[in-house]
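Sample entry follows:

:::
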Amino acid sequence: MEAVSGNGARGGHSIEFPLWKTPQSVRTSSLTRGIPEPAVHRVREDTHDVDRVGTLAALEDPEPADRPEVPEDDEDDEEALPHSEAVDVFQEGLAMVVQDPLLCDLPIQVTLEEVNSQIALEYGQAMTVRVCKMDGEVMPVVVVQNATVLDLKKAIQRYMQLKQEREGGIQHISWSYVWRTYHLTSAGEKLTEDRKKLRDYGIRNRDEVSFIKKLRQK
């Protein structure tokens, strides 16, 4: 075929483009050259549908290797025990601990604080002060070796609180009244300075301390 000029004429004759070759009838690209427009659209739509179906399939049904494994233990951990049951489990564990010969003197409803105090006693990090009440009862109160008079007073209060919770009876003691009314004494010496260490008063392990009523100031 001979080339034509821009105006489509050679040798005085005009050459008309066939209708199916006009630029208005066929739009071409490097990939779809020579393919009619409806067919190109159809191929694009089919390709889009295939990509969409493949994407949905990948989202809905991932490969087994890509699926995250959920440990069975995690499901069990999510079911936390109620507080009351957790307390029961803790108490049962403590009850087993106190069966040890070193802890056999502790009560069944023992607290973690009492267990730690008993262990500190065995390692020489604490001492027992025998506090004698005015009715003759002796309270074995555990304090650390460098405890002060104030530490001993707090330990006495804690001892009485636990005793009341286990045995019932009087539920409230006004300790501010007790310490305003009574002194603690050891070997006839009044423990008047709260910040002074017990060992500075000569108090050692298993020594006795008693209550004595304060004299009214005139």
Q: What stands out?
A: The first strand starts at residue 9 and ends at 10. The radius of gyration is 47 Å.
